[in-house]
Automatic annotation (TrEMBL):
Signal peptide: none annotated. Keywords: DNA-binding, Membrane, Transmembrane, Transmembrane helix. The chain crosses the membrane at residues 122-141. It comes from Amniculicola lignicola CBS 123094. It holds the Pfam family HTH_Tnp_Tc5. InterPro entries: HTH_CenpB_DNA-bd_dom. GO terms for molecular function: DNA binding. This is HTH CENPB-type domain-containing protein. Residues 10-75 form the HTH CENPB-type domain.
Length: 148
């Protein structure tokens, strides 16, 4: 069950007149995400608590909440985040028996070049397959008729 649906079910199961403790519910949400190997970000905690509270919660509230409930967050540039991502990726590749020849990584790099005193933007596309093969480099640039 999706974590949001679990919270909706918790809210709907409250007896009439009973109020929801959003701190407890948000803590449960954070723990559920961590158990699924997807630790929440500060923004997830803040957004979720704001929805439960039906009013915005401050960044300082999020900090106090995280410290009070020992929620382990993932930072945007965290090595743990990348390990979790690739562990999940490998488990899905194995689960669905995805052949490496169907897995590609593409990246683009944009450049500004000067052509007769005018700046032009071009992009280089690189694409490599998990089986080790690669597509030829591609260039994307604006045509004379302003198309690509």
């Amino acid at each position: 069950m999706h974590p949001i649906q679990a919270v909706i079910d918790d809210i709907e199961s409250l007896p009439p007149g009973e109020t929801l403790l959003y701190t407890k519910t948000a803590a449960k949400y954070g723990i559920t995400l961590t158990e699924r190997h997807i630790p929440p970000t500060r923004e997830i905690v803040q957004n979720f608590a704001s929805v439960i509270a039906k009013e915005p919660v401050s960044k300082s509230w999020v900090t106090r909440f995280i410290n009070r409930h020992s929620i382990h967050l993932i930072l945007a540039d965290s090595g743990d985040k990348y390990c979790l991502y690739f562990d999940l990726l490998h488990s899905k590749i194995n689960q669905y028996q995805i052949d490496p020849r169907y897995t590609y990584n593409m990246d683009e790099k944009g450049f500004l070049i000067s052509v007769i005193g005018r700046l032009k933007r071009i992009f280089i596309l690189a694409c490599i397959c998990a089986d080790g093969s690669a597509l030829l480099l591609s260039l994307i640039y604006e045509a004379a008729n302003k198309g690509i």
